[in-house]
Design a protein that fits this description.
Number of helices: 18
Helix content: 40-55%
Strand content: 5-15%
Radius of gyration: 48 Å
Length: 557
Amino acid sequence: MIERKPSPAPKRSLQSLEAGMALFPHFRKHILLSGPVTAAQVAAISEATGLKERQIRTLAARYRAHPGAESLAPKPRGPAIGSHRIDPAVRTAIDALIDEIALKMVPPSRAETARQIWGLLHADNGNHRFSADLIPSEKTIERLLGEISSSAWARTTMGSKTRSAHEAHPGEYWSEGFLDLVQMDHTRGDVILVDSLRREELGRPWVTFLIEIWTRSILGYYVSFSDPSIFRCGRAVASALLPKEPILKHLGVDVSYPMFGLFKRLHADQAKPHRSEAFRRACVRNGIDPDVRKPGPAHLGGHIERLIGTMVGKLRILPGATGSNVSARDGYDAEAEAAMTLSEFERWLLCQIAVYHHTPHSALGGLCPAQMWEQAAACHGPLLPLSVDSDQLFLQFLPSKSLTVHSRGIQIKHRHYWHKALAARIGQKVDVSWDERTIQHVYAELDGSFVKMAVIGQYPDVWEADWEAARAGVRALGRAYQADGGRAATARAIAAANQETHLARARTKEARRRAKRREGEGTTLADLRATEKPEKPRIRWKPVADLGEDDWLKVRT
């Protein structure tokens, strides 16, 4: 069943209201609000107004239900607003086709939808085949489409953020006091930044904001080129907890930024870093409830969404601003106009945060967030416990994992880290945190404190991402070398080695065969027969003529 808008109440014209007002004194005088309507009462009203008995009794019932002049005014003629004279079977088919054609993520225009539905109802080779006199016109079908409620259109044709404006959102996500509720979210700035060496285009930065709901102050922020992660969420939360004077002094920005302090609840969306165990554990350790909201539209984090919209709108004045869409920068080369580095952008952002804090806020009744913060902080006491160590706080919000201690230490991506305190913990698991900005060391939490473990071997002091990118580059060079003749050379070497193996096997077989022939045969029964005597040589007689006179008695062989 398609959800439709309720029919509007019929509007009475001034002429009909005047007619009701003329009848009102007579009904007020003669018609009682309880009891039967007598013939005498009907006759008196009929004599004064000229109405017939049936009209008087109908108006009397309406008057008793709503005793006012408007109830006696004539109703407008014609069919009731929102009613249709469409055959029920046709209406059911139209609703089914609307659900199939129009109520989807990328719907056609209403005129095209009406044309498609009319054609499917009328086609003699289709599934419906209604007669022409039962099918409404395309204009009527368009009116039916217009009666669908905005929320029904939004649920099926819009994303979660867009449809939020078309849905009912009663109530409010309420803060119970100062530093009670903080909302956090990330956005990609609509501006292109450049590098600090050659001033060449780098890309768009990510900005994280935390807003304190009670005072509408920006409690913390973080700027980076990388996508939001546990590390960057932790840096943003730590920025909200700690005073801003060190960063203001480091960047050389002369603005007032007194907002900091330990808050009770952190409201964030369902992003993976917000749901990670390491991030939630760090929040709980510092007394912060990580109130990750349920999946849903953007209005559930409306305060931070509105703040992001305000701050992103300020980016349009910067060189290299990209605008919200392609049409907004038609004919404008944002890459060529880009001029600000990340540190310059952060200094500009701090100035804009100061402007925001000293601008009247409608949700505060016209007060500025800085005023509201000053009033609330004066009655609060210490904003941060004295026991909080900023270095330990930053380490707590680093990404971490439980790893086993081996004889060579802790292994992370083929690298080993060692500290002498690990010698007694071989075979145990310890919680290890790492800073994405360097691979030189990691931190192991031992006995409630963090121990810095150095890497074993010669490694450069680079980001984890840079190291992995360099390793990927080396692997790419290896693959390129293989593709450019290395693989063919490998194939030839494999074939030659295989051929040598086959030749060795053939030589071995032939050698063994020759050795068998040399050794002869074994002794069997067939070899035990009697030995044959050799034949005597034949006597060769010489002729007498060949014999000498004295040698004739001698026999020569």
